[in-house]
Design goal:
The complex is a heterodimer of chains A (1014) and B (152). Mean pLDDT of chain A is 75; it is low at 267-323, 527-536, 723-733, 873-884 and 1009-1014. In chain A, helix 1 packs antiparallel against helix 2 (41-61), helix 5 (118-131) packs across helix 11 and helix 28 packs parallel to helix 29 (947-956). Chain A has seven domains: 1-131, HPT domain (Four Helix Bundle (Hemerythrin (Met), subunit A), Up-down Bundle); 139-282, no CATH class; 331-384; 390-569, Heat Shock Protein 90; 574-725, CheA-289, Domain 4 (OB fold (Dihydrolipoamide Acetyltransferase, E2P)); 734-872, OB fold (Dihydrolipoamide Acetyltransferase, E2P) (Beta Barrel); 888-1010, Response regulator (Rossmann fold). Helix content of chain A is 37%, strand content 26%. Chain A has 31 helices and 40 strands. Chain B has 152 residues and is mainly beta. Chain B has a single domain (11-150), classed as CheA-289, Domain 4 (OB fold (Dihydrolipoamide Acetyltransferase, E2P), Beta Barrel). In chain B, strands 8-1-2-10-9 form a five-stranded mixed sheet, with no helix packed on it. A five-stranded mixed sheet of chain B has the order 3-6-7-5-4. In chain B, strand 1 and strand 2 form a beta hairpin. Residues 1-9 of chain B have low confidence and may be disordered. Classes of the chains: A alpha+beta (1014), B mainly beta (152). The A-B interface holds A 585, 634-636, 674-680, 683, 685-686, 689, 691, 695-699, 709 and B 40, 42-48, 51, 54-56, 59-63, 65, 90, 92, 94, 150-151.
Chain lengths: 1014, 152
């Protein structure tokens, strides 16, 4: 027993259970503290039982220190339970720290017997003593010897335990187990037996009688005895049902410490609870009890002061628990994995057979089956890695409690959405950033009770942690109702660090100013505190989140509080990535880091690439982007690229973006991330490796690390950014959903996905030519068909392609566009070139998935190809004022493509449109045409002045207080809509959802026109 | 496995022999998981010089070390005879790149000798000892030390 065997199945089970118990204890204790003197017995019982089973197991495995500490906590909890002690914050603090220590001991259980737990035991013992009537104080340290019949030795039990046990109407039994006959031969383990005992009572002591095994000289006894001192409410006549030992070896321990056989006790009247402590304490000779003896001298002398609280280093975070190597899994999940694995084997067999028979159809269907099962398998395996965010959140109530006590604040933590699940790896990576932010919220966010009272707030602050799903991502929010982010201090700090100039600050939107906090060295704290404020912090938070593929946003209102939103992907194990190659080697770049792909023809290189200091920069629209050559950065010579087009992947590290120059850009594929070996631990430029379709390995680039290698520091980027800031501040590219398809075999086309209502496969024979127009049967009517070559000079669809008809809704009437497969969908930030390839029906081009793609303007195409068709649309109902003047709409949209589309759409139904390319321009237009504009339709993300800021500005002006504002958005989450409504937006519309948009314009204008004029 | 658990009685050791350039070396065959052909190595730039690259071994990424470079030879030039000895070390598969494989030979435990004094110190560190087999002297490589020093 003395040698701890960590491979022992029972021990592993015990340790796993301990960890589980400890995981919930903290929350329970905090709740007990919250309840104060009004204790919730069930709650206390739960913690008590947890402590008890830790103790019970520890005794069995000979983990003396764990047992002793668990025992002391158990005693303290027992006193709380029996209302002998009030769970004051001091008491709970000591318990919390003791359980922390227990956790540490269990973590290192192999060395736990050498650990020093003296001060913890002393604190707990002191606690018990201070709360006991004076007469019983000695019982805390006293021991009683109970002699075991038919043997020369005795069990020592603490008087205190016996007293407490008897107080709860319990009888005490001494049970003797024969480990070999009673337990092992019945196929059980001793630990299981102890566990079943613990369900009905408390184990006070366990001792192994090693003498009973005999020595080598004796006759082989074939016996190994275990003595258990057991307290339970079961009467002697019932005990036999729980204890699986022969009745003659179960004995009753009387109050005087004498031991009687069970039979005698069962006949006698049941043990009546009597005034406790009638057994004479004996001085324990055992050296193991030493700390117990010494402690009371320190703690007990003056009865009044609270027991000493063991000091733990204030700033030290809880010892980082090593990443859990085991995981609990729902059996149904495992079953479905098993089923899928079986399916996979079957499909493989089918495939192998088809291959050997050279049955091409079989091979094709087999391959399809394998791919189907594989994706399902992938999905289920991903699920096994999902864990509730609650596991992480549950660590924070304690943090907030301790911190607010230290700082003298009253803070309540509210937790929502703990059931939201996220990949285990992300959850682990989230721990440090979240801890930091919760600390910040308590330390900097929430004011002291006095300050809050002065500001007219309730003295207690509130910190909210909330997790939710949004558009395939997990959003975690940390909000407080404190004083808000001191934007001025952040800006000052950023100016002092030389990150921005005062001139820039003047024009900078509030949100960008707040975002300065994410730069290294920027801080709001004027003096340093233990908790936070050393200027290392938010930048580290951001770096950590970037590693997880997360994004963070701040929203703060002075005096009302701050809100941080973290958006995270669901899983990291399988990620979409862009494949690139350079010098014959392939690399993967996680798609989240890729902004856009740019191909610069050889002829334009001179004009578009410039130098800023030593750095090469790309002139991208009105910005300057630093360039990094992949080959050069990785130590290969820069290939001679004279006369060759340059392929650039614009990548975003979270802190800044740069252009990565590679030889070739390939597809986007889903890759499985595999870790790199330890030889590469120091290489920041790689995030891992993956196996490609052909079985070869490609390394995954870490764009932030790569920038570091290229000595592309934030400082140089800032320098470049400063140059370009003069031109513009924000990225014009916006997230778009597009449907990709082909026209002729080499012509890639795309339309905004929002416009598409259906896609139908079609055979060329189905198309009818009537009256010079193409139509086909569609839902019992004839559907007019157009093709791109009707209006633009492109090639015709060839008969070898598989044709599809993309159906659009134009004013409630369907219109079909002939196209060819393959079809694909893409959500990406794209930049539309509206000049180079402009033709009737083609509004521009963009590089999507490495190919130049034509973007179609379906309205224009329809009007050009089917003249008159548009005129058949029913005239819109109301777009004229009573004055006869046409209604004027102010449209703010930064993308030329969408502005053009929406403007044409509105003009087609008779509105007059004032178009502006950003919020600032819109505001200026509104000033000039204050009397005419009846409605504002605005995009949200725009440079200079965004849609929300524009809305606030309009609402702040009394002239426009009633002006209807419709926000146009490509993708709106509920949160975003709420923010918009708060800013004063009347309605949200999805861009280019023509009918809905026109309908809401009509309603808004109508309502306003009817409103009494001011 | 703790050292005490290793069989004391086993007097003979199986050695998997190989050539590093022209040096006849061996590894304890019990430590070798498998021997694979060298194919499709992905180079990892900026990695330590002895890392020849990474390969895909049935879905696991395996780091290939050029054992010759550890022994002070110039970088290996992979050929058709190049092989990779896969060994497991601290839960990770590592491949040792050798120029050619030899046979598996059985040697008696007490035929071992420390490396001769004239082996350069840099090399001698990585040899457990030498022994004679089939008329040749084979240097037994201390894989643990190569891996330990390579991983720094």
């Amino acid at each position: 027993m003395s040698e701890l065997n960590l491979d022992d199945e029972s021990l592993r089970e015990y340790l796993a259970e301990c960890r589980e118990h400890l995981a919930t204890i903290e929350t329970d204790l905090l709740e007990i503290e919250h309840g104060g003197a009004e204790i919730d017995e069930q709650l206390v019982n739960r913690v008590f039982r947890a402590a008890h089973s830790i103790k019970g197991g520890a005794g069995f495995f000979d983990l003396a220190k764990i047992r002793e500490l668990a025992h002391k906590t158990e005693s303290a909890l027992d006193m709380i339970r029996s209302r002998q002690m009030v769970p004051s914050p001091e008491v709970i603090s000591i318990l919390l720290i003791a359980f922390d220590k227990l956790r540490e001991l269990i973590q290192n259980c192999a060395t736990s017997n050498q650990a020093d737990i003296g001060e913890f035991v002393a604190a707990l013992t002191g606690l018990a003593e201070n709360n006991l009537p004076p007469a019983q104080k000695s019982s805390v340290t006293g021991h009683v010897a109970i002699s075991v019949p038919e043997s020369s030795w005795h069990i020592e039990a603490s008087t205190f335990d016996l007293t407490q046990a008897r107080r709860g109407c319990k009888s005490i039994y001494l049970i003797e187990y024969d480990l070999i006959h009673d337990i092992q031969r019945r196929g059980q383990t001793p630990y299981q037996v102890l566990k079943s005992l613990m369900q009905c009572g408390t184990i006070l002591e366990t001792v192994f009688d090693l003498d009973s095994a005999g020595t080598l000289d004796d006759e082989p006894s074939n016996k190994l005895m275990m003595e258990v001192l057991y307290a339970t409410v079961l009467e002697p006549d019932l005990i036999g049902q729980v204890v699986q030992a022969p009745p003659e070896r179960v004995r009753v321990v009387a109050k005087d410490g004498s031991v009687k056989p069970l039979a005698a006790a069962a006949a006698a009247p049941p043990a009546v609870p009597a005034p406790p402590a009638c057994v004479a304490p004996v001085v324990p000779p055992a050296p193991a009890a030493e700390p117990v003896q010494e402690a009371p001298k320190k703690a007990a002398a003056p009865p009044a002061p609270p027991p000493p609280t063991p000091k733990i280093p204030a700033a030290a975070p809880a010892p980082a628990s090593p990443a859990e190597s085991t995981i609990r899994l729902n059996v149904t999940l495992l079953d479905s994995l098993m089923t899928l694995a079986g399916e996979l084997v079957l499909s493989r067999n089918q495939l192998n057979e088809s291959i050997s028979r050279q049955d091409e159809r079989g091979i094709r269907s087999g391959a399809q089956r394998v791919s189907l099962v594989t994706s399902e398998l992938q999905e289920v395996v991903t699920l096994t890695r999902m864990q509730g965010v609650g596991n992480l959140f549950s660590k924070f109530p304690r943090l907030v409690r301790d911190l607010s006590r230290d700082l003298g604040k009253e803070v309540e933590l509210r937790i929502e959405g703990g059931e939201v699940e996220i990949d285990k790896t992300i959850l682990e990576g989230l721990q440090d950033p979240l801890t930091h932010m919760v600390r910040n919220a308590v330390d900097h966010g929430i004011e002291s009770p006095a300050e809050r009272a002065a500001a007219g707030k309730s003295p207690g602050g509130m910190v909210t942690l909330k997790a939710s799903h949004q558009a395939g991502q997990v959003v975690i929010e940390i909000a407080d109702d404190g004083k808000g982010l001191a934007v001025e201090k952040v800006s000052e700090s950023a100016v002092a660090k030389g990150l921005v100039t005062r001139e820039q600050l003047k024009t900078m939107p509030e949100r960008d100013k707040m975002a300065l906090i994410f730069h290294p060295g920027v801080s709001t704290a004027q003096k340093l505190s233990d908790v936070s404020g050393r200027g290392v912090g938010m930048d580290v938070v951001k770096t950590n989140l970037d590693k997880l593929g997360g994004k963070i946003e701040i929203d703060s209102t002075p005096g009302r509080g701050s809100r941080f939103r973290i958006k995270l992907p669901l899983t990291l194990a399988i990620i979409p990535s862009l494949l690139v190659s350079d010098g014959g080697e392939r690399f993967a770049i996680p798609q989240v880091n890729v902004g856009e792909l740019i191909r610069i023809p050889a002829a334009q290189i001179a004009g578009r690439i410039d130098r800023a200091g030593d750095a090469e920069v790309l002139i991208l629209r009105d910005r300057l982007v630093p360039l990094v050559y992949l080959a050069e950065t990785l130590g290969a010579p820069r290939p001679d690229r004279a006369g060759i087009a340059l392929n650039v992947a614009l990548v975003d590290t979270g802190a800044f973006e740069y252009g990565l120059v590679v030889e070739e850009l390939h597809d986007t594929v889903e890759i499985v991330v595999k870790p790199l070996g330890r030889h590469f631990q120091n290489l920041r430029e790689y995030a891992g490796a993956t196996i490609l379709g052909d079985g070869h390995v490609a390394v995954i680039l870490d764009v932030a690390g790569l920038a570091g290698c290229a000595a592309l520091s934030t400082a140089t980027v800032e320098a470049v950014a400063r140059q370009s800031a003069v031109l513009s501040t924000a990225d014009g590219a916006e997230l778009r959903s597009l449907l990709l398809f082909r026209n002729a075999p080499q012509e890639d086309c795309a339309v905004p996905l929002e416009l598409v209502s259906r896609i139908e496969r079609v055979r060329p024979q189905q198309i009818e030519y009537l009256g010079g127009r193409r139509t086909m049967q569609y839902r019992g009517a004839s559907l007019p068909l157009v093709a791109l070559h009707d209006t633009a000079s492109v090639q015709e669809l060839s008969g070898e392609q598989s044709w599809v008809v993309i159906v659009f809704e134009e004013a409630g009437r369907p219109l079909g566009l002939l196209a060819a497969e393959p079809l694909d969908m893409l959500e990406s930030r794209i930049t539309i070139d509206t000049a180079t390839l402009r033709q009737p029906g083609v509004s521009g081009s963009a590089v999507l998935k490495g190919r130049t793609t034509l973007l179609l303007d379906i309205f224009e195409l329809a009007e050009t190809a089917l003249p008159g068709w548009a005129r058949q649309t029913p005239p819109p109902a109301v777009h004229h004022h009573a004055t006869g003047q046409s209604t004027t709409v102010l449209l703010a949209e930064d993308s030329d493509f969408f502005r053009g589309q929406i403007q044409r759409l509105m003009e087609a139904v008779g509105y007059r449109v004032l178009a502006a390319e950003d919020g600032q321009a819109a505001w200026e237009l509104l000033q000039d045409h204050a009397g005419e504009v009846s409605l504002v339709a605005t995009d949200i993300e725009m440079p200079r002045l965004d849609g929300l800021a524009l809305t606030r500005q309009i609402r702040a002006d009394t002239r426009f207080a009633k002006l209807p504002i419709i926000a146009l958005s490509s993708l709106a989450g509920e949160e975003e809509i709420a923010r918009g409504l708060a800013a004063g937006v009347d309605e949200y519309q999805i861009k280019l959802n023509r009918d809905d948009l026109l309908e809401s314009i009509r309603k808004a204008v109508g309502k306003n026109a009817n409103a009494p004029a001011l | 496995m703790t050292p005490t658990l290793q069989p004391q009685a086993a007097r003979n050791v199986l050695l998997a022999t190989f050539f590093v350039r022209d040096t006849f070396c061996a590894l304890d065959a019990a430590t070798v998981q498998e021997v694979i052909r060298l194919s499709a190595v992905t180079r990892v730039r900026h990695a330590p010089p002895e890392v020849a690259g990474i390969v895909n071994l049935r879905g696991r990424i395996v780091t290939i070390l050029d054992i010759g470079q550890k022994l002070g030879f110039p970088p290996a030039s992979p050929s058709r005879e190049s092989r990779v000895f896969i060994i497991e070390d601290r839960n990770e598969f590592i491949g040792l790149l050798v120029d050619r494989v030899g046979e598996v030979v059985e040697v008696e435990n007490d035929h071992w000798q420390p490396p001769p004094a004239n082996v350069p110190g840099g090399q001698a560190r990585f040899f457990k000892g030498v022994c004679r087999t089939a008329g040749r002297v084979v240097a037994v490589v201390n894989a643990a030390r190569i891996l330990a020093e390579a991983a720094q």
